[in-house]
């Protein structure tokens, strides 16, 4: 288990990075958090803290596992992030494949 100062440092750094980078705006697009047009300072702070708690909890839970499971979970998370990024373009492969002259 990690030391409490290390966990606190991870939480504070993730709060600052999420707040400064504007990554909290991605969470406003989720339907169960709040409406995107209602972005008050309190909502931004709460959303940033929730994201930092999730990030810190993820790191703590992964650190409790054996190294082989840690590697597998991190690769699965990276693959999931890649797939979310890939599907965000909303591509239609059937029409792309039908229009390909060399296929």
Concise summary:
The chain is mainly α and 103 residues long. The protein has helices at residues 4-21, 24-28, 41-63, 67-87, 93-98.
How would you describe this protein?
This protein has 103 residues and is mainly α. The chain folds into two domains: 1-64; 67-103. Helices cover 71% and strands 0% of the residues. It has five helices and no strands. α1 crosses α3 (41-63). The model has no long low-confidence stretch (mean pLDDT 80).
Ends distance: 54 Å
Number of domains: 2
List how many beta strands DSSP finds. Answer: 0
Helical fraction: over 70%
Main sheet overview: none
Query: Structural class of the helix and strand makeup?
Result: mainly alpha
Q: What is the residue-mean pLDDT, rounded to a whole number?
A: 80
Low-confidence stretches: none
Shape: flat
SSE sequence, one letter per element? HHHHH
- Note the beta-strand portion: under 5%
Number of helices: 5
- Computed over alpha carbons, the radius of gyration is 19 Å
Question: What are its keywords?
Answer:
2 domains, single chain, 103 residues, mainly alpha
Fold topology:
Layout: H1 4-21, H2 24-28, H3 41-63, H4 67-87, H5 93-98
